[in-house]
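Q: How would the structure tokens look for this protein?
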Amino acid sequence: MHPLLPALQKGLHDLGLPLSGDQQAQLLAYMDLIAKWTKVYNLTAVRDANEMLTHHLLDSLAVVAPLRRELTKLAVPNSAEQGEASTLAVTHPKFSLLDVGSGAGLPGIVIAITCPDVAVTCVDTVAKKAAFIQQVAATLRLPNLKGLHARVESLTQPYDVVCSRAFASLVDFTTWSKSALATHGVWMAMKGKHPDLELAVLPESVTVFHVEQLQVPGLDAERCIIWMRG
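A: Here is the predicted structure in token form.
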């Protein structure tokens, strides 16, 4: 048994996030791959395994339930305005998500493991990080995951969700990734403290429809998701 399995299972219980044994094993195998590659490629500054569990895995797992909720809204018609988007989502049941500035694949790889109905693309300007994500996809047999070495500004394929984790200011994040957001899509920006100053300078073309506070098990720090539409 993996030494961190009990701590992961407690965290999942606290998050109210049931996962299969296979998914739990994949998450821990992914964490082990980060530790192995970091020795050579310096993927993350966090080296301690317990810290990696809270700061990386559980921090990313905290967004899974909120993400599933928003995807359900895209898939189920609940207003006249959403009719076209909902039809599109039902016709193509596999949602698409772009993780911008993914680094070691957080939260993109965690989402790919926990949400097999979501096709996840992790984009990063650093080639070795994109290569690592491709390696994880092959090693963990995740057909819904791919790493992409590119600048997000160059992407034009539309994604249902464009997300980031401590990547850039909200203005830069939304500006750079605008061309990759589907017309019915949403931005999911993971932040620490409530970013009042960043929210204040967002352009009128970006609508913030929800600021969601998160509780990460074992992590004594503020976390939130800024949900936006273009």
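DSSP finds nine helices and seven strands in the chain.

The chain has a mean pLDDT of 91.

Upvote if useful.
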